[in-house]
Specification:
It is a single chain. With 260 residues, this protein is α/β, with parallel strands linked by helices. The protein has one domain: 3-Layer(aba) Sandwich (Aspartate Aminotransferase, domain 2), CATH 3.40.640. The protein has eleven helices and seven strands. The protein has a seven-stranded mixed sheet with strand order 1-7-6-5-4-2-3, sandwiched between helices. Helix 1 packs antiparallel against helix 10. The two termini are 12 Å apart.
Length: 260
Amino acid sequence: DMPTPPHIIERLCQAAQDPANHRYPEAASLPELRQAIAGWYKKRFDVSLDADLEVLPLIGAKEGIAHIALCFIDPEDIALVPDPAYPVYFISTMLAGGKPYYMPLTKKNKFLPDLDIIPEDIAKKAKFLWINYPNNPTSAVADLDFFNKVVKFAWQHNLAICHDAPYTEVAFDDYRPVSFMQADGAKEIGVEFHSLSKSYNMTGWRIGMVVGNAEIVGALNTVKSNIDSGIPQAIQYAAIEALTGSQDCIQQHNAIYQRR
């Protein structure tokens, strides 16, 4: 419920005045935005990304999450989905003709899915495993040990990992959440969705990204190119400012959230 930081709004206003930004945007978004995303991941998580192959801006992370099932889910395929979870994970699976298999998140297991109890026949049929940390709605967090275990599980069962990570910048008391992309082999087996909505109070701007495995990122770009016409370029320039400009706003927002 807080406004977008002024320096981001100012950059939007500047970009909106440029007639070049009144046209259809580039299909995979501005190279400068992809480079800004890759640079942010390197600075924040020490993760190296190929801006041309492993980074794709989205019209909000939700859009990418909803469409990725169309890339890989065939009728009767299974997606492993946490329960409770963001509804788009399982609804997008069903819209693509697949079936969600629900993994309970329990207090006993620190609200992490217990991969060891997933039936072998289910795991073999699964195309995706969805995870989301820091978690909505439980607020649980995951460490690299868990993410490394997820990567191992994915290799064992020939499935892809989709990590939804919009809350990595919302944390208190010097705790800094890790990225799934920091796990050994994560880029070879999965992708991570991120969003500027929570970090920079840009929920209404609809700007996010997916990073990671080049094949998965490329497939999503192919689907998107037949569904949408990209992110308005003025918003892309504002996103570049958000990612490369002052990050003081994140700490300021978190201080307010913590007081509340």
